[in-house]
Write a structure and sequence with these properties.
- By secondary structure, this protein is mainly alpha-helical.
- It has helices spanning about 1-15, 25, 35-45, 55-65, 85-95, 95-100; strands at about 30, 105.
- Strands 1-2 form a two-stranded antiparallel ribbon.
- The longest helix is centred in the N-terminal third of the chain and has 16 residues, at about 1-15.
- The mean pLDDT is about 80.
């Protein structure tokens, strides 16, 4: 239907404009601290109230996975299938100029501590 047509057009548009990263580059790709501090937090506030403190699962459902996730409908550089990770989507959607400031080779892993027992 119409939803599938829109998804296909979105995929075609971003495939043509997106930076082409190899599987290896994608596997080491990370978000910049500046992106997390500003753009990511702004995106979280857009989906939740300004003063909320949403749990990881709420953020994941709203921004990271499924039909509302940033990577929905975009081709994954790791396996070539449709639907990619959040970091790959940011890299593609912001384009080579802005995406290179928001993403790059990860040098540190920041772990989100949640639900450890």
């Amino acid at each position: 239907g119409l939803r599938m047509q829109l998804r296909a057009r979105r995929l075609q548009f971003f495939e043509a404009a997106a930076p082409h990263r190899s599987k290896e580059e994608s596997e080491l790709l990370g978000l910049s601290v500046a992106y997390l501090q500003h753009s990511f937090l702004r995106e979280v506030r857009k989906h939740f109230s300004q003063d909320s403190d949403p749990a990881y699962h709420a953020i994941s459902t709203a921004l990271l996975h499924g039909p509302r996730g940033r990577g929905h409908g975009l081709r994954c550089p790791r396996d070539g299938l449709v639907d990619c990770s959040y970091v790959d989507a940011v890299d593609k959607l912001l384009g080579p100029r802005m995406g290179r400031c928001a993403t790059g080779r990860a040098t540190v892993m920041l772990s989100w501590c949640w639900e450890y027992t």
